[in-house]
Specification:
heterodimer, A: 297 residues, alpha/beta, Rossmann fold, Arc Repressor Mutant, subunit A, 2 domains, seven-stranded mixed beta sheet, three-stranded mixed beta sheet, 9 helices, 15 strands, elongated, B: 294 residues, 9 strands, 44% helix, globular
């Protein structure tokens, strides 16, 4: 599955790394258009006031509401839970406001009152779940169709589910226990993701990095996907034609939007797709066999 | 059954601050401007570092009533500074309910040999570093978050860059060592062995590492993120600029979109003058704050 983690602020890296370890494609989402191809979305912990402001200033509010309404799974942890709730105490501007729960921010006090506890979570097998609460919110009311799925010993609700939406006031991403992430992704099974039509020849892994026309819009972090991107760019060059460096740059500028033609040109050469004169005065497309040889390490 | 003050919750709060900007504030009004701009936390101070530098004298923990009034004015976490080694100031700050204590070289050190033993505290600590050894010594003492020292109050990014590059370079060096070389490396770094081993295993510090000391513009903040910072502290840079609210908001956006020069260009436009600043190379050795801490 390809899972996005909203990366405006907070501990998005911990979620992404956990999803990576579980073998899913995980992407950091910083622009609304990146939501389009995801099967599921996590809104991480962080400062809810900060994330709420960045959601508004980056025009994320409507796209996030639409994502929640699309039936694809969305999970808010801590600050993310605050942003999903329809009613929030002491948040001075609207979040996504889609779950029928009411949340009290910093409900347990200040940082010195942050704590760890073991929980039973409805739908999560295999014994108690160790939960870390950091300046945590609590869920003080759950309205139908939302339902509580975990409580502290004193009855305080700390996790709730409403159809495709999940909210937890604690941080499963800070531990090694992947059960709640698995539970979250299982919400998505049975929901048929809308496959996006990618330009022919591109794998699903490339979806977050290209637009409809096949132009690269972001540079992947993983080398495996970088290699696919570079191979994709090589299609833009014609066999048997010689290019000056400036011409190579022009071809690349038309094929990507993050202004790093130098990086792409260097990798095209290093990974054997382009050949060049020693002094860099001329470039040309290397034969396919050359490309295979060079990166078969 | 619920446990407070554990290592997981101390380090955890710093994880929640990542990708964010922590701003120095000296009044509740400043704190509200910072929160409104999207700061993920504020640092409550009596004077920003550039004023401490200018006015001289002994810089101490801020007055309790100031810290309390700032805590009451915002919902984001509030940090406050204690002098290096002054564990009683730290106990006072914990009693006031601050969310994080910065054992800071910006204040006049209280102890020229020892830092605060941070393990017994419930409240977490952030400490400054210039290199990996210093970072790991602080973590060994119980710091749950690290920041580069940079050179506070100058608006000159050069020292923050030097310290971040030094830490990253030393981490890469440790990663490339064979496991039998780690013992001598730990000795040379003056750092606890198990923490050096953790760095080798993970390829990064065991806690969050922010950049601090000299960040004055959105581009400065993005530069530090590009160099591997998890977030940034901005001290004098915001409230010594022409337009603090606009600077604060622009630095927050640049920290989120640090990989996107178009966004940084857009948010940097029309801000007015940044803090004037002092070039670090014009300072005398004894005027440097970063050399405090051991």
């Amino acid at each position: 599955m390809s899972v996005g983690v909203l990366a405006l602020q907070g501990d998005f890296r911990e979620h992404r790394e956990m999803l990576d370890r579980m073998g899913h494609y995980a992407y950091e989402i910083r622009k609304p258009e990146q939501l389009r191809d995801l099967d599921a979305l996590i809104i991480p912990g962080g400062e809810s006031t900060t994330i709420a402001r960045l959601i508004i200033s980056n025009n994320f509010q409507e796209p996030l509401r639409e994502f929640c309404a699309s039936g694809r799974p969305v999970w808010g942890t801590c600050a993310g839970a605050i942003l999903l709730a329809k009613h929030v105490d002491r948040l001075d501007r609207p979040g996504i406001e889609t779950m029928d729960i009411s949340v009290v921010r910093n409900a347990f006090g200040r940082q010195v009152d942050s704590f760890e506890a073991d929980l039973e979570i409805k739908g999560v097998e295999g014994g108690p779940f160790h939960a870390v609460f950091i300046r945590a919110p609590l869920i003080d009311a759950v309205h139908h169709p939302a339902g509580a799925i975990a409580r502290l010993e004193d009855g305080t609700v700390v996790a709730a589910r409403q159809d495709n939406l999940l909210a937890t006031s604690f941080h499963p991403e800070l531990d090694d226990d992947t059960r709640l992430h698995e539970y979250f992704l299982s919400i998505g099974r049975g929901i048929q993701p809308q496959p996006r039509t990618l330009p022919e020849g591109l794998s699903h892994a490339m979806a977050p990095f290209v637009d409809e026309t096949g132009r690269l819009t972001a540079w992947p972090v993983k080398e495996r996907i970088q290699r696919e991107a570079i191979a994709w760019l090589a299609h833009r060059f014609e066999h048997g034609r010689h290019y000056t460096e400036a011409e190579v740059n022009r071809v690349l500028d038309a094929a990507h939007s993050f202004h790093d033609a130098a990086l792409l040109r260097r990798l095209l050469y290093e990974w054997g797709y382009l050949d060049r004169e020693r002094d860099g005065s001329r470039y040309w497309l290397a034969g396919p066999h050359v490309a295979e040889d060079t990166h078969a390490s | 059954m619920a446990q407070t003050g554990t290592w997981a919750v101390k380090v955890g709060l710093a994880q929640m601050l990542k990708g964010g900007v922590i701003m120095d504030v000296v009044t509740p009004e400043h704190a509200k401007i910072a929160e409104e701009a999207g700061a993920c936390a504020v640092m409550a101070l009596e004077r920003v570092p550039s004023d401490i530098r200018k006015e001289g004298g002994v810089a101490r923990m801020s007055a309790p009533e100031l810290i309390t009034s700032i805590i009451e004015s915002v919902t984001i976490p509030v940090m406050a500074k204690a002098r290096i080694g002054h564990f009683v100031e730290a106990e006072v700050l914990q009693a006031l309910g601050v969310d994080y204590i910065d054992e800071s070289e910006v204040l006049t050190p209280a102890d020229e040999t020892h830092h605060i033993d941070k393990q017994p505290f419930t409240v977490p600590f952030v400490c400054g570093c210039r290199n990996l050894g210093e970072a790991l010594r602080r973590i060994g003492e119980g710091a749950a978050m690290i920041r580069t020292k940079g050179e506070a109050g100058t608006g000159d990014i050069v020292e923050a860059v030097r310290h971040m590059r030094t830490v990253q370079d030393e981490i890469r060096r440790i990663q490339n060592m064979s496991s039998d070389e780690i013992y001598t490396a730990a000795k040379e770094l003056g750092a606890p062995l198990e923490l050096v081993q953790a760095v080798k295993r993970e390829g990064r510090l065991p806690v969050v590492n922010f950049a601090a000391g000299g960040v004055a513009t959105p581009a400065d903040a993005a530069l530090m993120m590009r160099l591997g910072a998890d977030g940034v502290f901005v001290g004098s840079g915001i409230f010594k600029s022409d337009n603090p609210a606009a600077y604060a908001k622009a630095i927050v956006e640049a920290t989120t979109h640090y990989q996107d020069p178009e966004v940084i260009a857009r948010v940097s436009a029309g801000l007015g003058a940044a803090m004037r600043g002092i070039s670090v190379s014009s300072l005398q050795e004894k005027e440097l704050l970063a050399t405090r801490g051991w």
